[in-house]
Specification:
Blueprint lengths: L14 E6 L3 H21 L3 E7 L16 E2 L2 H6 L5 E4 L7 H10 L4 E3 L2 H17 L4 E2 L11 H7 L5 E7 L2 H13 L3 H10 L8 H4 L2 H15 L9 E2 L7 H10 L1 E12 L7 E12 L11 E8 L3 E8 L3 H21 L20 E11 L4 H11 L4 E7 L5 E8 L2 E2 H13 L3 E10 L3
Parallel strand pairs: 1-2, 1-4, 2-3, 4-5, 5-6, 8-10, 10-17
Antiparallel strand pairs: 7-9, 7-11, 9-10, 11-12, 13-15, 13-16, 13-17, 14-15
Helix pairs in contact: 1-11, 3-4, 4-9, 6-7, 12-13
Bound molecules: NADPH dihydro-nicotinamide-adenine-dinucleotide phosphate and L-homoserine.
Length: 442
């Protein structure tokens, strides 16, 4: 392999890339690599070349120009091939991705991956293997698609005391919620379109139930807070229960519904330090910058003690945007390999996780009550008894004998909200609790 140089002379031997997976991301990566190889060599001195591509089915039409002699179904052989210098893992899932990544790292090959599920479950094992073998493990594409967020957290903000991260980090759900709100699309049609556009995971339950956003939250929190946060630490609710009626109600109160990912540190630097990580749909004021993040776009706000608030915005899903992030990592990994350098992942020990019951939020509630004198004051009394204060209320026109009432509360502790809901469910005047959605104000 050639030494690092900014020249593009003929003696600059290529860095051969083994690509595991050629689906939405892998095929876009192969195309982009073909288009950008010369410019990359000119800019960085790194000459990248696809050396092998592992897939499940050789005969599948991938819709790209691809030298078929590169294709194989033997991913292990690609990793073990001595002519392969760097490995890209874009298969997804835990196995065989975990074993393949570990094998590559152990044989001294840097790895670039887009696999958030893998990193959020066994990231610490992989980070340790990369460090022990002195090679890079890079994963910019594993959070928020094309948006550079991992590298800023790993490098630019390494010295910053990061206090919180809040964002929209799943393109599929943002696309679905945008189509439902703006075009009146049904949930099923919008999800189908997100799948067709290559935004969704192989099993879209990962997107719509918040697992994917949860994995990304765990990865970002681990790096930002120097702690080993795993997917199981993240409190998670998805968007599959959000209805068109919820979206209309949000609009009436001046909000839009977004699937939010939130990570925060409490009592930073003390013995009581805790990390709160959660993913849930929330009503966001239309004036909030996250409200204007539409379609498959993502946005992440990072707040540091010294830096204040920083915003990162861009395409969060899709083959090409993701391939852009993978290719950036690939250039970095290849360049570091040539220099014999690598950058360890700044993760850390297991943190104390603050339970959702101890976190606070404002809430939107829609309930149906019997329409008789005094009912509203009784219902308001239940909120008061549990320490929850009401900020706004609206009553809808409904059939006689029933009234549909929407409330927005002030900030309250989750356990108090849950106690309020339990009491409302038992209350004679309450016919049904139709919606319970968190609200953020700023
Ligand atoms: P796809 O399902 O489109 O592609 C997966 C690829 O992996 C396919 O080419 C498949 O082969 C191949 N594959 C599966 N199992 C094996 C195996 N055992 N050996 C060799 N090849 C295998 O997924 P995506 O491209 O959408 O996603 C890939 C990864 O990137 C995932 O981790 C995903 O979470 C992540 N990601 C995806 C984004 C997106 O917008 N799509 C954005 C950011 C990250 P075959 O084609 O023959 O079936
Ligand atoms: N399924 C993911 C999403 C892909 O929709 O955001 C990008 O990570």
């Amino acid at each position: 392999m050639a030494s690092n140089s900014s020249s593009s002379s003929d003696d600059n031997a290529p860095v051969r890339v083994g690509i595991l997976g050629c689906g939405h991301v892998g095929s876009a990566l192969i195309e982009l690599l073909g288009e950008r190889a010369r410019a990359i060599e000119t800019a960085s001195g790194v000459r990248l070349e696809a050396g092998a591509v592992a897939v499940r089915s050789i005969s599948k039409d991938r819709g790209i120009e691809l030298d078929e002699s590169l294709l194989t179904t033997d991913a292990e052989a690609v990793v073990a091939d001595p002519s392969i210098d760097v490995v890209v893992e874009v298969i997804g899932g835990i196995e065989p991705a975990r074993s393949l990544v570990l094998a590559a790292l152990k044989s001294g090959k840097p790895v670039v991956t887009a696999n958030k599920e893998l990193l959020a479950s066994v990231g610490s094992e992989l980070y340790a293997a990369a460090e022990a073998n002195g090679v890079d493990l890079l994963f910019e594409a594993a959070a928020a698609g094309a948006i550079p967020i991992i590298r800023p957290l790993r490098e630019s903000l390494l010295a910053e005391d990061v206090r919180s991260i809040i964002g929209i980090v799943n393109g599929t759900t943002n696309y679905i919620l945008t189509r439902m709100a703006e075009d009146g699309a049904t949930y099923a049609d919008a999800l189908g379109e997100a799948q067709r556009l290559g935004y969704a995971e192989r099993d879209p339950t990962a997107d719509v139930e918040g697992f994917d956003a949860g994995a990304k939250t765990a990865i970002m929190a681990s790096i930002a807070f120097g702690a080993n946060v795993v997917a199981g630490d993240v409190y998670r609710e998805g968007i599959s229960t959000i209805t068109s009626k919820d979206i209309e109600s949000a609009e009436r109160f001046g909000y839009v519904i977004k699937l939010l990912a939130i990570a925060s540190v409490f009592d930073a630097g003390t013995d009581e330090e805790e990390i709160g990580v959660r993913v849930y749909p929330a009503m966001v004021p239309v004036s909030h910058p996250l409200a204007s993040v539409r379609d498959s776009f993502n946005a992440v706000f990072v707040e540091g003690a010294a830096s204040g608030e920083l915003m990162f915005y861009g395409r969060g899903a899709g083959g090409q945007p993701t391939a852009s992030a993978v290719l950036g990592d690939l250039v970095d990994a290849a360049s570091n390999l040539q220099r014999g350098a690598f950058r360890p992942v700044p993760s850390g020990p297991r943190p104390s996780i603050r339970a959702i019951d101890d976190l606070e939020s404002a809430y939107f509630l829609n309930i149906t009550v019997g329409d008789s004198p005094g009912v509203l004051s009784e219902v308001a009394g239940v909120f008061a008894e549990n320490g929850i204060s009401i900020r706004a209320m609206q009553q809808d026109d409904t059939p006689e004998s029933e009234a549909s009432v929407a409330f927005i509360t002030h900030q309250g502790r989750e356990s108090d909200i849950q106690a309020t809901l339990s009491r409302l469910k038992e209350h004679d005047a309450v016919k049904s609790i139709n919606s319970v959605i968190r609200v953020i104000e700023s």
